[in-house]
Write the structure tokens for this entry.
Amino acid sequence: MKQAAEFERIAIEAAHAGGEVLRRRFADREPLAVEVKAKHDYVTEVDREAEAAVIAVIRRHVPEHAILAEEGSTGGAHAAYRWIVDPLDGTTNFIHGVPAFAVSIGLTDEIGLIAGAVHDPCRGETFHAHRGGGAFLNGSRIACTKLDHLDAALIATGFPFREMVHLPAYLAAFELFVRSTSGLRRAGSASLDLVYTACGRYDGFFEVGLKPWDLAGGALVVMEAGGIVTDVHGGPEFLREGSVVAAGSRLHAAMLAITRETL
């Protein structure tokens, strides 16, 4: 798919543009103007600056496409394509000086996700994929782990900090995963959790209470790395539903058994 590969290259270029803003501003360590969007949900001028850099690249290449971005969206005459952008996934980490954040960019068409990139400016790592083309880290192919049981699995998760209504069910799932696996990790960036699953650093990832821009960039990378991505009930509407279970093809069903029971 020549066109899909070109969209992947645009996603990488845009992610790098946003990442350069994050890298520079993180190194400056200047005081940030922080706004509260909702309880435990923050935005800074860095989010907006990085988003502007990302959108400028997309607009230069495909001005007719629509864009859904965390800090603001723009329309486009060609509604068949929609870019889903998180310019700073891990804002709370960034504010506190924790080097675990990323730029996440995904593109959808009438079928679903077609291209995606997640860029970690602190480590210089770019995870990228297009539909049918495999998954890559800085140009080298990656794959999910082939682990088929939870006992030895290292699972990533994220707390439902935006919507506390999910907390009781989440804590029930959390307990079952703690009892069933070799460990859980919560780093604070869903896009990095997804791509770490895609390259085998994590064996799987689950979370609830998410937004499309948290998931779009990394979900395709997992799928192209041989993994399975669904909502917590096993359905395909994770972008709309706002929950996710992502894992290698042999482990996904075991994770889903827990999330279906609890979430």
About this structure: Helices lie at 2-28, 45-61, 91-96, 167-180, 190-198, 212-224, 238-241, 252-262. The chain has a mean pLDDT of 93.
